[in-house]
Amino acid sequence: MDAMPEFNRESGFAGESGAVKIQERLQKRHQARAEDAERRKEAKESKSVAEEQGEYFCSSFYTERASIEELLSGCSGADRAAVALLLEEVTARTLQLQKFLNDSTLFLTQYELRKAQDALQKLQSSLAEAREEALPRKKFAFRARAKATDKAPAADAPPPDAGAPADSGGAKVDGAAESVQCSFSNMDSVCLTKTAEEIQKRDVLLTHLTNCKVRLFGSPSTLHLKHIDSCEILCGPVSSSVFIDHCRNSTLAIPCQQLRTHHTTDTKVYLHVTSRAIIEDCRGVSFAPFSWSYPTLEEDYAVSGLDQGRNNWSQVDDFNWLAAGTHSPNWSVIPEVSIHIADQFIYAAAVC
């Protein structure tokens, strides 16, 4: 029998080489379909895993938060020694809850992340209020200057130091008492410094500062910045969260676990953050890696517990910008050339 001929227009048959080519095309098509099915399967499994992780996080996070709140409620009516022990345990567990949240940010939705951060912030505020109520720090205030008609002070009484900043646990912000242990407020065009010994893992509040240079050495527990205008603020590693509200025309250098920024404009942030930074109602905010250095920085990192090898300074979530795949116009990355110039400036600005 003669060999089968090549493909012929009239007969419509293909030769052996044509059959091989058809078989190859069928195999490639089958392989492509199999790969597509595998990708769909992996995507479905990945989505399922993320949903399971989210469900596990929510269950674990809110169960632990409720447990901490119950423990915190035990402070009411207890003696001072018992309250001190309870607050110590609550503080440790709250920090662990903060770390759990930071480690879970990669698979949480923006809604889940925002809800959990709000819940954690309320818990931290409750802890600060309970500490202030049960173990209040001594209030320190400067006596007002005596009026001309008042009786003159005794000869051996030291004059009030009117130039020193108020630093108390009862600072007020917008008419509301803030439970903080270190603070500078209502200052204009001055240089302000807190040493590591003064901070000692306390909550720090800076509010209503204009044209000020602030240097915070050591490791604060939390840092609150409110109503900051045209300031330079350099801070050592913050062991938990930094909250910024109504800041403009300023330069900030901060390492922390979590950063939440509200109502802030035209501000540069040199950042080390181990979770993802969050901005809301902001514009003109720019970010670069944290670059401040001072002699005890490594020791302060150790005290704070921050992971120096993990910095998500450019991973910013804008809660006012929900267009997927499109960069928010409200924040930007500081150009590399500007970063080098700023590095030199910040290094020179280690002290006022």
TrEMBL record:
Record-linked InterPro entries: C-CAP_CF_C-like (IPR017901), CAP/MinC_C (IPR016098), CARP_motif (IPR006599), TBCC (IPR027684), TBCC_N (IPR031925), TBCC_N_sf (IPR038397), Tubulin-bd_cofactor_C_dom (IPR012945)
Domain C-CAP/cofactor C-like: from-to ranges: 165-321
Gene3D superfamilies: 2.160.20.70, Tubulin Binding Cofactor C, N-terminal domain
PROSITE patterns associated with the record: C_CAP_COFACTOR_C
GO molecular function list: tubulin binding
Protein family membership: Belongs to the TBCC family.
Protein name per Swiss-Prot or TrEMBL: Tubulin-specific chaperone C
Taxonomic classification: Eukaryota, Metazoa, Chordata, Craniata, Vertebrata
